[in-house]
Amino acid sequence: MGPTGDSYRVLQIHPSRRCNLRCLHCYSSSGPEERGEISVALLRDALTEASEEGYTVAGVSGGEPLLYKPLHELLQHAHECNMLTTVTSNGMLLDERRLETLQGITDLLAISLDGVPASHNRNRASERAFDTMASRLEGVRRSGIPFGFIFTLTLHNLHELDWVANFALKQGAQLLQIHPLEEVGRAKQFLSRARPDEIESAYAYLELLRIQALAGDTLRVQLDLIDRNLLRSSPSRVFADKPSVDETSLSLSDLVSPLVIEADGTLVPIQYGFAREYALGNLQEASLCELATRWRRERHQVFRKLCLSVFEEITGPDGLPFVNWYEAIANKSSESATIPLT
Amino acid sequence: MDQGEGYPGRGSERILQDRIGQRALPKEDLQQLVAFSQQDGVELVDIWIYGQPDPDVVSGSFQVNPEVAASVVQDLIRQRVRYHLDIFPYGVPALGVRDIVQIGFTSRGLK
């Protein structure tokens, strides 16, 4: 089943690392100087084949997706493939013209918000980041596109979550996603030792419950951590169960979700930056279906072994329950050479 | 832009500090709070910390479905050294809200 569940099988697309900002915590080290991008023709083909493999959600991130000129065509095609679409943006470029290109083909617009204005601007390395983003929100509401905010939780900013939640409620957001910082990309340099540990994660969970109770059904609050106690009884959520059926009969989305297309065309499991050891290959060299076939044959069992190893590690010790499985498996993928199959 | 600014301590400490000064919850209490809040039918509706200037108590409340209330109460009673129970019915039937039981709790803070 995997961490995204049975209904939502996610293809995450990073068409480019070009961005109008150079955020301190950016996991892909995106910025204005980046120019490379994946052609929309190649991404359309990948979307078509991904939907045939059972993927139901196309999430576009980056870089700043609004700087990808064929974004409309990409989202349109995802909808034609019966996929839901999400766009993750810093919100600064959401003018009326761009909002028009998103209308009707964007199922969720996720806007980054890192705390009170001063903190947001500091993380975004721009003194205009908050005000410009905030000035776009009236247009977002008028557009009717469902939207939410993504808050990057660090060791140092939980006290700002209450302000963020109130801001989200006032703005009419439907979602507040709390995403723990990972020390990858630019964060490795600028925010080292700022990732939330298990104590901070537990407090974040309690804050989430408090905020969710206050907000009721108006705002859904989501914390991107998993409870190791729940995980113990549900290893299939992280691909750590014993296969009950012949896996050759399963679609790729049964075996790996999220599936990520990085800005250079590399197709990796789970999240951006996953070790190349486990990659499916590069879309510039072969189609998604061809890469999937080869991966099933040559790498899938190695990936399963990695999943099992991480599952055993994070479900082992008792303690505070919340862990970032995505971070744990990405780190493990990088530190491990090929794990022997036997 | 100065990239080194920002709150240097834990965000959670800042929350506690704003309410009670330089205090923190014992890890054991934090673990218990999380465990209670995760029981089926239990919803953490409030948590606050009081006692300035010499804070020693964390207080809050859970809302609990009647069908699981007994087991939750049993759990809390087993740990009565740390938790004081204050149980009373809660609900607004006229608005169609299901009857629930509200359980207040208090926990000693960290001296």
**CATH class wording of chain A:** Alpha Beta
How many structural domains does the protein architecture of chain A include? 1
**Top CATH class of chain B:** Alpha Beta
CATH topology type of chain B: Alpha-Beta Plaits
Taken as a percent bin, the fraction of beta residues of chain B is 25-35%
Describe, in plain words, how this protein is organized in 3D.
The complex is a heterodimer of chains A (about 350) and B (about 110). In chain A, helix 1 (about 40-50) runs parallel beside helix 2 (about 70-80) and helix 13 packs across helix 14 (about 325-335). In chain A, about 40% of the residues lie in helices and about 15% in strands. Chain A has one domain: TIM Barrel, CATH 3.20.20.70. With about 350 residues, chain A is of the alpha/beta class. Chain A has 14 helices and 12 strands. In chain A, helix 2 links the parallel strand 2 (about 55-60) and strand 3 (about 85-90). Chain A has helices at about 40-50, 70-80, 95-100, 115-125, 130-135, 135-145, 160-170, 185-190, 200-215, 230, 250-255, 290-300, 300-315, 325-335, and strands at about 10-15, 55-60, 85-90, 110, 145-155, 175-180, 220-225, 225, 260, 265-270, 280, 320-325. Chain A has a 10-stranded mixed beta sheet with strand order 7-6-5-4-3-2-1-9-10-11. Chain B has about 110 residues and is an alpha+beta fold. Chain B has one domain (about 25-110): 2-Layer Sandwich (Alpha-Beta Plaits). Chain B has 3 helices and 4 strands; from the N terminus they run ααββαββ. Chain B has helices at about 10-20, 25-35, 65-80, and strands spanning about 40-50, 55-65, 85-90, 100-110. In chain B, strands 1-2-4-3 form a 4-stranded antiparallel beta sheet. Mean pLDDT of chain B is about 60; it is low at about 50-55 and about 80-100. Chains A and B meet through helix 4 and helix 9 of A and helix 1, helix 2 and strand 1 of B.
